[in-house]
Amino acid sequence: MINVAILGFGVVGSGVGEVIVMNNEKLAKSLGDGIAVKYIFDKREFEGTPWQKLVVHDIDIIMNDPDVNVVVECMGGAHPAYEFSLQAIKKGKSVVTSNKEVVAKFGHELLSAARENGVGYMFEASVGGGTPVIRPLVKCLVANEIDSVCGILNGTTNYILTMMNKYSESFESALSAAQEKGYAERDPSDDINGIDTCRKICILADIAFGYGMDSTTVYAEGITAIRNKDVALAEKLDSSIKLLGRAKRVGDRISVMVAPFIVSSERVISGIDDVFNAVAINGNAVGEVTLCGRGAGKLPTASAMVADIVDVAKNGGLNVSWCSPDETPDGILLTPDQVEDKYYVAFATHDASAVEEQMDVKILSQDASEIAVETPKMPYGELKNKLSALEAKEIKAVSVIRIF
Ligand code: HSE
Q1: Would you call 305 exposed, middle or buried from its count of C-beta atoms within 10 A (0-12, 13-18, 19+)?
Q2: What is the mean pLDDT of residues 244-248?
Q3: What is the pLDDT of residues 117-136, one digit of tens each?
Q4: What is the 184 CA–ligand 1 centroid distance (Å)?
Q5: What is the pLDDT of residues 64-123, one digit of tens each?
Q6: Cβ distance 36 to 21 under 8 Å?
Q7: 38 tagged catalytic
Q8: In a mutational test of the pocket of ligand 1, which residue from 189, 191, 273 has the highest number of ligand atoms less than 8 Å from its CB?
Q9: How confident is the model over 279-308, as a mean pLDDT?
């Protein structure tokens, strides 16, 4: 019997319990052994539910029980989730987590501790929710040098942008709906400011390139500055606005960043709506592979976590590692100002001539109060200089969005 202790019995933790019960026979068949939830670690009692008798409030009961094989960490936040994970690993228990913050910050250390202790540290649900991304990248694409990993990695913001686009909903009401559906983080500013996407793209970059990324210093823009007007224009241009995490090789350097992009409908990820995530991986042998599925929510996230329980119990941990951010060679990461893109820029003016004098642009739309243009490809630093020069002439950019 594989005995599991679930730390944190909120949306995701209770989903793990539900999937283990719902698919118990199927899981036992696949594993050749049963899976049982032995403990739930939570402040609450869950009175009147079948879970009540499993609740403990003392973490040492779990850590000191040799029958607990797998600790499923669904606590959220870096602490004490990191300390509990390390403690469990040192006690010879595998750890399965959905905690992006812990994986992005301490993943290299926890993976190395897991190897030393002969157990697994599994984190499929930390990126893509229910969409398999980590295992395909680590296992199925192992024969490739990875050139880029790019995609929609946050269900909440994709849901908000979809509601703004399809139903002209306001940003605020779409965010409330995402919170009600259990998609958003405890602090939804992590979603809308791009921090959640940043943690996820850093984890994917860690795996793809082997260098540890510091998600607290990687460039991340969110979606709070996106206006309904920008969304409507993107639609007119047969495109959509998506918050993307992008990690790619540029010569012998690497660029990792998060920002909203205008994505043409010719690209698969342009049509990925609602809470769905999609990750396009480019390998030097396979070409492009796109993985798509529900990126947040109770049962989809639990689906990935229960798969990790089965995998670690059956096959042991994943063969993956990366160095700590301190060991990542200086200068390997391009600064945001060095990264080249094309840009959509809306200016609060009806006169295009000053903008056209400053750079060679294509006019996308023009009305009495605004003109919107597409710029040529240039480093972000160069664009900022041009926008400052225009601002000095009182021509203000009211929206800047990269074009993918
Ligand atoms: N808040 C996250 C999202 C949850 O919306 O994608 C899944 O990581």
Answers
A1: buried
A2: 98
A3: 999 999 999 999 999 999 99
A4: 6
A5: 999 999 999 999 999 999 999 999 999 999 999 999 999 999 999 999 999 999 999 999
A6: no
A7: no
A8: 191
A9: 98
Helix (H, G, I), strand (E, B) or coil at 121: strand
Task: Report the DSSP beta bridge partners of residue 152.
Answer: 278
* Rg of the chain (C-alpha set): 23
Nearest ligand 1 atom, CA 153: 6
Which residue, by CA, sits nearest to atom 4 of ligand 1?
296
Residue 125 Cα: closest atom of ligand 1: 8
Q: Are 307 and 124 in contact (CB under 8 A)?
A: yes
179: helix, strand or coil: helix
Tokens coding 75: 């606590």
CA distances from 306 to 31, 73, 377 (A): 11, 12, 44
Domains and CATH numbers, the chain: 2-130+299-319 (3.40.50.720), 134-296 (3.30.360.10), 340-403 (3.30.70.260)
User: Both tokens of residue 247?
Assistant: 């990690």
In tens, the pLDDT along 134-164 reads 999 999 999 999 999 999 999 999 999 999 9
d(CA 178, CA 173): 9
Task: Return contacts of 290-294, CB within 8 angstroms, 24+ apart.
Answer: 290/151, 291/128, 291/131, 291/132, 291/133, 291/136, 292/131, 292/268, 293/128, 293/129, 293/130, 293/131, 293/132, 294/129, 294/130, 294/131, 294/155
Q: Give residue for tokens 């994970």.
A: 85
Which H or E element spans position 108? helix 100-116
> What distance in Å separates the CA atoms of residue 12 and residue 303, rounded to the nearest whole number?
10
Q: Give the pLDDT mean for 343-355.
A: 94
